[in-house]
Amino acid sequence: MSDTLTLSRHDFAIGDKVVYPAHGVGQVAAIETQEVAGYTLEVFVVTFDHEKMTLRVPTKKAKVAGLRHLAVEAVMSQALVTLKGRARIKRTMWSRRAQEYEAKINSGCLVSLAEVVRDLYRSDSQPEQSYSERQLYESALDRMAREVAAIEKIDRDSAVAILNKNLTKAA
């Protein structure tokens, strides 16, 4: 009975798939009470299987930290439309653009991820990417694919195929 009360007080329940901005899709494995520096702290224990990592997020700080549920259908549709759009590459120095792309990747926003994937996508007929462009592209694509896979309940490779299909329509 106490578990039901504990879960109803929070935005997330044990077993929920969630997105943490800096790490992508994870799952709430538990809600624990821990003693930290003399304070009692309630935390969400979030596991990220693809990174073999466990993160503890204080329940009171979860929203501020950016922990959120998987994107709703409307947001996913908007992200797919964004992928089909025309790449918008600013004429600024690569280091500045790379910082902006990194910030978008770590924002945890599915539409921002779609913008990075769209802007850094190269079809076979286009010139090669630099190593750092490729790294950012792969990071954004992977993060986006994992969320799409979790939403659609499919594997990551199938999600990448969906994203690539939307990208090639744009090219």
UniProtKB/TrEMBL annotation:
Q: Which GO terms describe its biological process?
A: rRNA transcription
Which SMART domains does the UniProt entry name for this protein?
Answer: CarD_TRCF (SM01058)
Q: Which domain of life is it from?
A: Bacteria
Which SUPFAM superfamilies does the entry mention? Answer: CarD-like
Q: Which residues form the CarD-like/TRCF RNAP-interacting domain?
A: 11-121
Signal peptide region: none
InterPro entries per record: CarD-like/TRCF_RID (IPR003711), CarD-like/TRCF_RID_sf (IPR036101), CarD-like_C (IPR042215), CarD-like_regulator (IPR052531), CarD_C (IPR048792)
> Which Pfam families is this protein grouped with?
CarD_C, CarD_TRCF_RID
- The molecule here is called CarD family transcriptional regulator
Organism equals Asticcacaulis benevestitus DSM 16100 = ATCC BAA-896
